[in-house]
Amino acid sequence: MREQNVASPSPQPQATSRMMPTPREALAPPDVARLLELRQTIAARDRLLAERKLDLGVLRFGIEQERRQRPSAAGSPARLDPAHQAHERESLELTEERDRWLAEAESLRFMLLFALERLRGHAGGAVSPQPALEDAAP
Predict the structure, then answer these.
(1) Roughly what angle, to the nearest 10 degrees, separates helices 82-120 and 29-69?
(2) What is the pTM of this model?
(3) Residue 109: which residues within 8 A CB-CB, separation 6 or more?
(4) pLDDT digits (tens, 9 = 90+) for 120-137
(5) Alpha-carbon torsion 44, 48, 53, 54, what sign?
(6) Helix spans in the chain (H)
(7) What is the pLDDT of residues 74-120, one digit of tens each?
(8) How far is Cα 104 from Cα 119, in angstroms, rounded to an integer?
(9) How far is the C-alpha of 20 from the C-alpha of 47, rounded, in Å?
(10) 65, 59 in Cβ contact below 8 A?
C-alpha cells in the first residue's frame, strides 16, 4: 500500500500585539480622502435616485396613456408593465449599492472618531462626536 503525503496545513499568520492602527495612522490623509470620496459618491447616487423617481412618474404616465388607447390593456396597472418593473429593479440595485457605500462611510467615520479620541487620551471611553461635559468651559 502506498503512503500518502499529507501536506501540513499552511502556517497561520502570527497575531501581532497591535491589531488596530495607531491614532496617527488611523488619521492618515488617505482615510479622510476616502471618506470625502464616499460622501460625494453617495450624494451623487442620491441625486440619481431622486431623478429616477421623477423618471418613473413620467414612465408610468406614458404607460397609462398608452394603455388607455388600447381597450384590451386599459384595466391593467402600469406597475405590471415590463418597462416599469425593469426601472424599479434597477433603482433597487442602485439603492442597495448606495446603502453599502453608506455603511462603509459610517464605518470609516467611526474609525476616525475613535482615533481622534485615542489622540485626546480617551481610548477606554465611549466615542462621542461632541465634547464631554468635563471639557466644557464654566
Answers:
(1) 160
(2) 0.58
(3) 35
(4) 885 555 545 555 444 544
(5) positive
(6) 23-26, 29-69, 82-120
(7) 567 777 888 889 999 999 999 999 999 999 999 999 988 888 888 88
(8) 23
(9) 36
(10) no
